[in-house]
TrEMBL record:
<feature type="domain" description="DUF4236">
    <location>
        <begin position="3"/>
        <end position="56"/>
    </location>
</feature>
<dbReference type="InterPro" id="IPR011990">
    <property type="entry name" value="TPR-like_helical_dom_sf"/>
</dbReference>
<protein>
    <submittedName>
        <fullName>DUF4236 domain-containing protein</fullName>
    </submittedName>
</protein>
<dbReference type="Pfam" id="PF14020">
    <property type="entry name" value="DUF4236"/>
</dbReference>
<dbReference type="InterPro" id="IPR025330">
    <property type="entry name" value="DUF4236"/>
</dbReference>
Length: 338
């Protein structure tokens, strides 16, 4: 397959393959997040769909990448006769799967990836395609197999110049993206665990992510959401509070994390402290999602009411109602009835 200067091929809803003379990248998932790879390093971007604002983390290229075997640009995904003779069968299947995905044949691609699932990269690709089909059990098996070969994960895709990325929702406002490394694989496994109701497995993967990415606000946000969406005990609520100390509200991800910090404080019975957190979160409104700001105002109004600040509660609720009359129980709280 020869590469033209630039092509963007729509494969399926939420899946694109980006090709240029020097690189190829595979993207899964909805609008709002992306992962890009360049010779200067990797840049991960977490965004709030519709806001134009993205949360970005720069990761240096792995030292081993410079020494990894590379396939010449003109030969990527195009194994000639003699090259195929000397390429292992599982690697040929991986390449054939990538070519099938490029051609838009997801079923054939999945079949090739599963034939080559002894390769961590093939298992990762198969797992992501199964996840996209909402076939959670095989998706989990493939991704766990990919983690089992962590020292080789990403190596074959790097060899052929393929940068794969997947997007997952962390909260209704924040998307995270993943690539074939431990962080991305565990984010996918967290998503599978949440979708199948296995919260203990989701927590186990998030705990590991906190070890390898202790300062990543997306990981902290994922943990806070898991805790607060469940019947958290006092120790868990206090952990969310401790974890989110010092959050500066510089990005939309941090604004979302402040929402969960405030919720934890409120559930601990510290209403005034929670109000202060929501107020700090609402000071930065530019490029924040309207839904996130509305949720913050609504929850602050509920706390205003609890502490007897009735006029402020009413004013906040009226503003929320003016923006979205159907939001939560705002009509009932304002006494508007049916």
């Amino acid at each position: 397959m020869s590469f033209r200067f630039w092509r963007r091929i729509r494969i399926a809803p939420g899946v694109t393959l980006n090709l240029s003379k020097s690189t190829a990248s595979l993207s899964f998932g909805p609008r709002g997040a992306k992962y890009t790879v360049s010779p200067r390093g990797n840049r991960s971007t977490v965004g709030l769909p519709g806001t134009g604002l993205f949360y970005t983390v720069h990761e240096p290229r792995r030292p081993s990448s410079a020494n990894a075997p590379r396939v010449a640009h003109r030969d990527r995904l195009d194994l000639g006769f003699f090259q195929r003779l000397f390429t292992p069968a599982d690697e040929r299947a991986l390449v054939d799967g990538l070519k099938a995905l490029h051609a838009g044949d997801e079923g054939a691609a999945l079949g090739e990836f599963e034939k080559a699932d002894s390769l961590p990269d093939a298992a990762w690709m198969a797992g992501m395609l199964r996840l996209r089909r909402e076939e959670f059990a095989p998706a989990r098996r493939h991704l766990e197999a990919a983690l089992g070969g962590l020292d080789r994960l990403g190596g074959q895709l790097d060899k052929y110049g393929i940068a794969a990325q997947v997007t997952f929702p962390v909260t209704p406002e924040v998307d995270a993206h993943a690539r074939p490394r431990e962080r991305g694989t565990r984010l996918a496994l967290v998503e599978i665990a949440k979708l199948t109701g296995d919260l203990s497995a989701a927590m186990r993967h998030v705990e590991r992510l906190l070890v390898i990415e202790p300062g990543d606000p997306v990981v902290m946000l994922s943990l806070a959401k898991l805790i607060l969406d469940d019947d958290a005990d006092r120790a868990q609520l206090e952990r969310v509070v401790a974890l989110s100390v010092g959050i500066a509200n510089e990005t939309s991800v941090e604004t979302a994390l402040l929402l969960y910090r405030g919720r934890a404080l409120a559930r601990l019975g510290l209403a005034d402290a929670a109000i202060d957190v929501f107020t700090i979160a609402l000071r930065r409104r530019k490029d924040r999602a309207d839904t996130l700001l509305r949720q913050l105002r609504y929850e602050r109004s509920v706390l205003y009411d609890q502490v007897g600040r009735k006029a402020q509660a009413r004013r906040e609720l009226e503003r929320v109602y003016a923006e979205d009359p159907g939001f939560e129980d705002v009509r009932e709280r304002l006494g508007l009835g049916e």
